[in-house]
Amino acid sequence: MTPRPQGLLLDAMGTLIGLRQSVGESYAAIAQQHDINAEPEALNAVFPRLFRQAPPLAFPGLSGAALAQAEQQWWSDLIAACFEATGHAGPLPEALPAALFEHFAEAEPWLVYPDVIQHLQRWREAGLKLAVVSNFDQRLHRLLSALELTPLLDAVVVSSAVGAAKPDARPLLTALAELELGPEQVWHIGDSPEDEASARAAGVRCVLIQRSKPRGTP
Q1: Cα–Cα distance for residue pair 79/200, rounded to 1 Å
Q2: Which CATH architecture has domain 21-103?
Q3: CA atoms 175, 179, 185, 191: torsion sign
Q4: Which of 94, 100, 113, 163 is deepest in the core (most CB within 10 A)?
């Protein structure tokens, strides 16, 4: 019989929260504000591939302003690659990647899946420690606060600050240290092969779930 966990390590995107519309729709709408015409479906077609081909969203040894700059540059490079792959010639206006970076830091593009709040509340009432572990950047702290999830969590771990991204074990091991729990005491809940591989590497049981996602999300 599998022991009851004392804590849960929760993926964020695709597990707790998702996008209200596709990446391509958001990219195209904000690009239009900067006098660039782009087709949402074309952007949706290239974004998942380019996202997965990009280097890990992780910056060992960086903190403070240097980390924030590296995070924004990572996304700026990915955004530029997406527009280039859909036929845009020449550099993008400097303000466009910055506007997109800020857009996805706000609550408006995101939704909390309908079952999430009740599960988090029930788990907390049962005495479980809860940590979000995500291949994302420091904007996630602000985003989870805006979505009113932060009070239900004990820790938030992002790959950019840890210096390693799932499927590496280090994000999960960092969360374990913050919760003061061992690998055998927690489960990881996620939605991707990277979640499963990271949990295996950390010696943590993994439960995968499947959400419906807008086209163009990785």
Answers
A1: 32
A2: Orthogonal Bundle (1.10)
A3: negative
A4: 100
